[in-house]
UniProtKB/TrEMBL annotation:
NCBIfam families: PRK13004.1, selenium_YgeY. InterPro entries: ArgE/DapE_CS, Bact_exopeptidase_dim_dom, Peptidase_M20, Peptidase_M20/DapE_YgeY, Peptidase_M20_dimer, Peptidase_M20A. One of its GO terms (molecular function) is acetylornithine deacetylase activity. SUPFAM superfamilies: Bacterial exopeptidase dimerisation domain, Zn-dependent exopeptidases. The lineage of its organism: Bacteria, Bacillati, Bacillota, Bacilli, Lactobacillales. Its cofactor is Zn(2+). The keyword Hydrolase applies. Transmembrane segments: none annotated. This is Peptidase. Residues 180-301 form the Peptidase M20 dimerisation domain. The keyword ATP-binding does not apply. One of its GO terms (biological process) is L-arginine biosynthetic process.
């Protein structure tokens, strides 16, 4: 394969990719409101001659190049988070800015830049005659990831009946190749009490005070060590082979965490004892942890057991309609996933990068020192659609995408033009490299 020609082809589409990304940035599109952005992406696929373009009932855009046997997918979510406090932005997030090296605007790193590179990576495959009977490239432009990561792929796999050989997530990776992430889940803890007049609180049973005890135990679960004498053994225990058969990958991904993220109460008035209190817990899970183990962990905290039937521990559900109006309910559970270093997909992506750019991360003048100080093969700190692709459904998934993790959800979000070009080249070459060896 002529890697130089692939690089040159990607460079030749630089300005087209930049224009496509600029157009996407100018269209607001938070979760469940991505319709106009999808129309723009569909138009780009049509212009570039994709062989088949579909929009499924949930609103995911599916663009196919080629008709070969193996289906190799490149995924990017079109939705963005909101802009937050406008005063924190130095420019209009939906107008953006551009320099010789950068593009700024909401969604540039998280993660419309990845969509742009994937669409043009597929175009390069077609231009250079890389498509053959061995594979078909599928670019998925997906919905509602920021609300409920992986929901879109659960629909694609279970309802559309699409199951690729493997999927490349185009989420931002700072020039690295990412082979996994910690999972997460959203836990609800509800506590019942008995109200009474605030002038005689001893007559009631204050649910807020009960919850205060429980939250102290939750904090200990996150902060404590794992010695035998510790009443509440901390989550760090999962990094120890004594407690976790998957300890090696757990050390690679990092320990799980738990924190209180929201709190609610019920009370007849501000002059009464609270008769109900609910907290939301954000639980990040490492290798070897499951939703069952995480719920049991909270249920077995001393304060939760102390209050017995007055405490209910459960998992949240998600059931918001997509921009098409379709509702696809799912539990708020986003499993940990990690693809082994020796897996054929990992090896193929590493080989592709090596042939195009060498053994180290690449970047702009602004990012290169930070990137080269990190290993090429690494992991995400945040969650991605891989939670359904590989976490729920066992389809191999790996990450390589333009932009930076630190730009995700941040004011003054930006990405780098060179990243768009490099990722398009890698995407174009990867299927051939994989098919030659698998």
């Amino acid at each position: 394969m002529d890697f130089k020609a692939i690089n040159e082809a990607a460079e030749g589409y630089r300005e087209d990719m930049i224009k496509f990304l600029r157009d996407l940035v100018k269209i607001p599109g938070e979760s469940a409101e991505e319709g106009a952005k999808m129309d723009r992406a569909k138009a780009e696929m049509t212009k570039l001659g994709f062989d088949k373009i579909e929009v499924d009932p949930q609103g995911n855009l599916l663009g196919y190049m080629g008709t070969g046997k193996k289906l190799i997918a490149f995924d990017g979510h079109m939705d963005t988070v909101g802009i937050g406090e406008m005063s924190n932005w130095e420019f209009d997030p939906y107008d953006g800015y551009e320099t010789d090296t950068e593009i700024g605007g909401r969604g540039t790193s998280d993660q419309e830049g990845g969509i742009v590179s994937a669409v043009y990576g597929a175009k390069i495959m077609k231009d250079l005659g890389l498509l053959n009977e061995k594979y078909t490239a599928l670019v998925t432009v997906t919905v509602q990831e920021e609300d409920c990561d992986g929901l879109c792929w659960q629909y694609i796999i279970k309802e559309d009946g699409i199951r690729p050989e493997f999927v490349v997530s185009t989420e931002p990776t700072d020039g690295g190749i990412y082979r996994g992430q910690r999972g997460r889940m959203e836990i609800k803890v509800e506590v019942k009490g008995v109200s009474c007049h605030g002038s005689a609180p001893e007559r009631g049973d204050n649910a807020i005070y009960k919850m205060a005890d429980i939250l102290q135990d939750v904090r200990a679960l996150n902060n404590n060590g794992d010695t035998e004498s510790t009443v509440i053994r901390g989550l760090v225990r999962m990094l120890d082979e004594k407690y976790n058969p998957e300890w090696k990958e757990a050390r690679f991904l990092g320990k799980g965490t738990v924190t209180a993220s929201q709190i609610f109460h019920s009370s007849p008035s501000r002059c009464a004892v609270a008769d109900g209190c609910t907290v939301s817990l954000d639980r990040r899970m490492t290798a070897g942890e499951t939703w069952e183990s995480c719920l049991d962990e909270i249920r077995n905290l001393p304060a939760v057991k102390k209050y017995g039937e007055d405490v209910v521990v459960s998992m949240y559900d998600y059931d918001r309609p997509s921009y098409t109006g379709l509702t696809y309910p799912i539990e708020c559970y986003f499993p940990t996933w990690v693809i082994p270093e020796e897996h054929g997909v990992t090896k193929a992506l590493m080989e592709t990068h090596r042939n195009l750019y060498g053994e180290e991360r690449e970047g702009s003048k602004e990012t290169i020192d930070m990137r080269k100080a990190r290993p090429l093969l690494d992991k995400w700190t945040f969650s991605t659609n891989g939670v359904s692709i590989m976490g729920r459904n066992g389809i191999p998934c790996i990450g390589f995408g333009p932009g930076a993790e630190a730009q995700a959800h941040a004011p003054n979000e930006k990405t780098w033009k060179d990243d768009l070009v490099r990722c398009a080249a890698v995407y174009a070459a990867l299927p051939t490299v994989y098919c030659e060896n698998n």
